[in-house]
Amino acid sequence: MSDLLRIEGLVVQFGGVTALDGVSFSVREGQICALIGPNGAGKTTAFNAISRLVRPADGQIRFAEHDLLGLEAADLSGLGIARTFQNLALWPGMTVLENVMVGRYARGRVGFAASLLGRPARVEDREVRARAYAMLDYFGIADVAHRDCEGLPFGTLKRVELARALVAQPRLLLLDEPAGGLAHGDVRELGETLMKLRDDHDMTLLLVEHHMQFVMGISDYVVALDLGRNLVAGNPAELRDSPELVEAYLGAPV
Amino acid sequence: MAAFTISEGSGAHRRLRWGAGLLGAAFLIVLPLVIPSVAQIETITQIVCYSVAILGLGLLVGHCGQISIGHSAFVGLGGYTTIILVADHNWPYLATIPVSVLVCLVAGALVGIPALRIRGLYLATVTIAVAALFPVLVNKFPSFTGGPNGKFANEEMTAPDWFFVNPYTPTGPPTDHYYAILVVAALMFLIAHNIVRSRVGRAMHAVRDAPLSAAASGIPVAKVKIFAFAVSAAFAGVAGSLLVIQLPAVSDTRFDLYLSIFLLVALIAGGSASIAGAIPGAIVFVVLRTYIADWAEGLDLLGGRPDGGQIVGILSGALLIAFVFLLPGGVIDGLKALRRRIVEIVPRPPRDWERYRFAGRSRTDQPAVRES
């Protein structure tokens, strides 16, 4: 299996602070890869650099045959990369269904000029609406399709965001703390869903996660960062007892 | 609870929509024929004209979340385009509208460029400059625009002979203008409806509510903003052309900063994120600027001074505050709430959605990776 996403020597600086200092790792096609590390390790920064929301000072990000650093954030969806956010980034003024429909923007064809006419947009709209609804049904939340996002439980909103990412049928799914804030049962269900996406739906997943049990349970490969640098990497079994990892989380024995 | 519940897309729902549409159309067509006075026909014609400007402003402010206090300049640009082409180049009135659209599309896109870097209060300030600049520019080129003396067309727009309105009555010509303007305005409402319902409309909403996640969902935020500015300005330009058809005279004071502010007040009063809200908005606008102004001018306590403008300003400010606190969704939101009391339309799942059951990537009907 080949590398779908390859990151080499990534450096990100915020003012004088170096958040990432030469991080390298790759994600193989068809695997679930997890990015872990204590707070401030640079996990989310790496994530935001991949989705082009943060501009790296140095390094390379390649997705399949594309050089992502030459592209804009908005181009990624069309290439087959979708993401979710740590603190949810849904649109409160739209219904759940409309939120999910936006996720399929890059697959749409109706341009600015065509949007002035009624027909092409209506035809496209019908399909996107049906797909978005089917996506909500997949997560068992079709009953809230026509409700506004505001006021829905957190677990439901997490599913809505996942549905919005998946409705684009991405090749690579980036998940920023998918289990964060979820109840115990929801976490298990999420793990099953993610493994199903990998096994049945041919997707590659990269996730940032704090929930260790969850990460070790579903990941094929784990990359640990600390203070903006690579710490260790390997499969969950190899990493479980890694002294470096224990030290990064708990501190060195005195 | 609503008195009646009907399912979305059902026969009853379709009949209700067609019925309401036909009733509205019939009302608008019969309206000038039953009104005896020229002044009143002119007032309703103005309402139609301004509704197009407010509609355009709504696309930008309500749907895309940008702010513009410069729309008077676009209305003026459209108005001057029409009057110059008609008075100096003998163009037919209606043929000038596409030119206004083009001119304002370009001007709107240019004004939209600052919106890529700044927003909120700062963007408002930049657009105020545009509104303030327009009358100055008009006075700078008097050979072209008539300068402070204004510009007039010698002939009003006339209807073709086959048209059913008799032009040799006092109400004939204003009725002709009303119908011409109504047709153009209806077309603009249709276009606005199409935009909002399309993929681009959803992108505008996403940019309004959370630009960062919009970009992460593949929406080219910069392009969407520029598009919103350009289209919004084009609507304002059409409104300007229509205003000139209604009254073929322009001057710099007809399109000053106050117009921009009143348009914004009217937009919020009508309901900014709603297509239909432009209609109550335009009614509020014209009532404020004509009836209230006339009433204030006649007030004894002002000693006959023409201070109506000040009173209108004070009232609009109070109205704005009242709406923001009491009915932030505008008049149209109130009307919708009222309608929901009578008829509840229950949304239902999209047709044939089972066909699109999620199958991931393995069974997609189109390639997942689109070459750009």
Automatic annotation (TrEMBL), chain A:
| Keyword ATP-binding included in the entry's annotation | yes
What Pfam families does its record include?
Answer: ABC_tran
A GO cellular component annotated for this chain's UniProt record is: plasma membrane
Keyword annotations from UniProtKB, A to Z = ATP-binding, Nucleotide-binding, Transport
Is-annotated flag, keyword Iron? no
SMART domains in alphabetical order: AAA
The molecular function terms in GO held by this entry are:
ATP binding; ATP hydrolysis activity
Residues forming the ABC transporter domain are 5-252
Q: Which PROSITE patterns does the record match to this protein?
A: ABC_TRANSPORTER_2
Name under which the protein is recorded: High-affinity branched-chain amino acid ABC transporter ATP-binding protein LivG
Instruction: Tell me the organism.
Output: Actinophytocola xinjiangensis
The gene is livG
From TrEMBL, chain B:
Q: Which InterPro entries match?
A: ABC_transp_permease, LivM-like
- Single Gene Ontology MF annotation: branched-chain amino acid transmembrane transporter activity
Query: What residue range is the signal peptide?
Result: none
Q: What is this entry's stated membrane topology?
A: Multi-pass membrane protein
Name the domain of life: Bacteria
* Keywords linked to the UniProt accession: Cell membrane, Membrane, Transmembrane, Transmembrane helix
Q: What is its main location?
A: membrane
Question: GO cellular component terms?
Answer: plasma membrane
Membrane spanning stretches? 20-38, 44-62, 69-87, 93-113, 120-138, 177-196, 226-245, 257-288, 308-332
Please give the Pfam families that the UniProt record associates with this protein.
BPD_transp_2
Q: Where in the cell is it found?
A: Cell membrane
Name of the protein this chain belongs to: Amino acid/amide ABC transporter membrane protein 2 (HAAT family)
| Protein source organism | Actinophytocola xinjiangensis
The root-end lineage is: Bacteria, Bacillati, Actinomycetota, Actinomycetes, Pseudonocardiales
